[in-house]
Each structure stands twice: as structure tokens, then as C-alpha cells.
Known about the structure:
Elements: H1 11-61, E1 66-70, E2 84-89, E3 103-109, E4 114-119, E5 129-132, E6 138-139, E7 143-149, E8 159-164, E9 170-175
Antiparallel strand pairs: 1-2, 1-5, 2-3, 4-7, 5-6, 7-8, 8-9
Amino acid sequence: MRRYRTSGFSLIELLVTVAIVAILVALAFPSFQGSLRSNRVTSATNELIASISLARTEGMRNPRGAVICTSANGTSCGGTWNDGWIVWIDVNGNGNLDAPNDRILRYVRANNRLTFNATSPGGAAFTNTIAFDNRGRVDPHPRTLTLQPDDCPSGQQLHRQLELARTGQVRTTKGTCT
């Protein structure tokens, strides 16, 4: 009598393979989480710098300046940096977003897994709005914007600080999570 061999995996071979894959995934997952956090911080930092640059450029093009302000809905100023921000041209130069006259250039919704904060030597009144005059200068105080993941592991370099000088220049520094 002739024996035929069937091809395939035995149950034991399949269980060993699944166990090895599970161990590898468990080891790689924390590293993958760190990569996701780092990418979130980098993309949000780049988006914020691009928005500031756009507001500054449009401020120099427009005789009345341009503004970047926090926005929860994308159509008006208000809320916090954690909600998002808009860049708009201040056509009449009054510092307020007037819907029919002023033009919104960009709306950015903030990533809900990041924490944003802003400070200004002028106090709380200047933390949520950054106005640029027609020379590209910040009106009237410099600002410091910080961001980091909301679940920032202690000791990791995921904290970003953007210092916006009175001249309109942005300097970015990295720091460890607090």
C-alpha cells in the first residue's frame, strides 16, 4: 500500500508561529507609539510655522496687516490653540475679524492628541492672537508657543517651543517632556 503525504501546517506549527508573531508585535508596539507621537509633534510644528509664515507674508503684502488667531470653528476667532487656528487678512485694520470684509486664508484644526500653550509678556490678552503689521513685525509683543503630546513620556524629546520674536522670526527649540 502506498502512502500519500498531505501538505500543510500542523496545529503545533501554526501555534508556535502565532506565538512568535505575538511576541514580536508586543516588542515593537512601544517603538511604533513613539514614532507616531514624534510624527504628530513634527507635523503640528511645521503646520504652525507655515501658518505663521503665511500670516507674516500676507501682512507685508496688505497695508493693514494680517492676523493668526485661535479658532474653534474656522470662521471666527475664539477658543484656544488646542482647538485650532485661522490665518486672515485684516483689510480694514481694526484687529477684528469682520466676515464680509476680512478674508480667511487658512484654517487648521489642531490635533486632539497634542497640547498647545501660548504665553506673551503682554499678558493673557495677547496669547490667542498674533497680528503682523505691513513690515512683517509682530504687533505689539513677542509670543512663545509650546506643544507636546498629551501623553508625553518623561524624558523623551517631544516638547517643542516656538519663540516668535517681535521682528516676526520664529525660532524652534526641542525639549524633554515635562
